[in-house]
Amino acid sequence: MTQHLGNVFRYQLQPEGYENLEDAGSTVPTGTYHIGTVAGAEVGVWEAEPGLIGGVTDEEVFVVLEGRAEVTFDDTRETIQIGPGDVVRLNRGQRNTWRTIERLRKVSIWSASDS
Q1: Structural domain of residue 84, as residue ranges?
Q2: What is the pLDDT of residues 53-77, one digit of tens each?
């Protein structure tokens, strides 16, 4: 068994899409790759093309590898600017919007919500 989980720039991401909040009926292309589970937490890569999307967070820590975005949290109205090298913590249940400015890729470690 190897301890090397892979290279986050070489994973073939599975296409997804989020509702584009600026253009009803269209989606913002995103992609994801689930690397695995470590000590009960999920590890993965996520990427988003430019656009405005919204969602609700799980408990998560991520590192931006490339690209730029603005993330606004509905509960606090705080907006953060993120880019390469930034480490961000998200709290479970926070509603937010992401304005991706340049195609963004991040590697995340998260605890999925209990359904």
Answers
A1: 14-111
A2: 999 999 999 999 999 999 999 999 9
- For residue 59, the domain's CATH number is 2.60.120.10
Q: How far is CA 70 from CA 78, 89, 111, 113, in A?
A: 10, 14, 23, 24
Answer for the pair 58, 91: CB distance below 8 angstroms, yes or no: no
* SS3 of residue 38 by DSSP: strand
**Does residue 51 form part of some domain?**
yes
CB 47 within 8 A of CB 31: yes
Stated pTM of the model: 0.90
Residue 83 near residue 108 (C-beta atoms within 8 A): no
Q: Is residue 9 part of a domain?
A: no
Tell me which residue of 42, 76, 77, 79 sits closest to 62, measured CA to CA: 42
Helix, coil or strand: residue 104: strand
Using alpha carbons only, give the angle 100, 64, 44 rounded to the nearest 5 degrees. Answer: 100
Cα gap 16→62, rounded to integer Å = 19
Nearest one of 20, 95, 101, 102 to 53, comparing CA atoms: 20
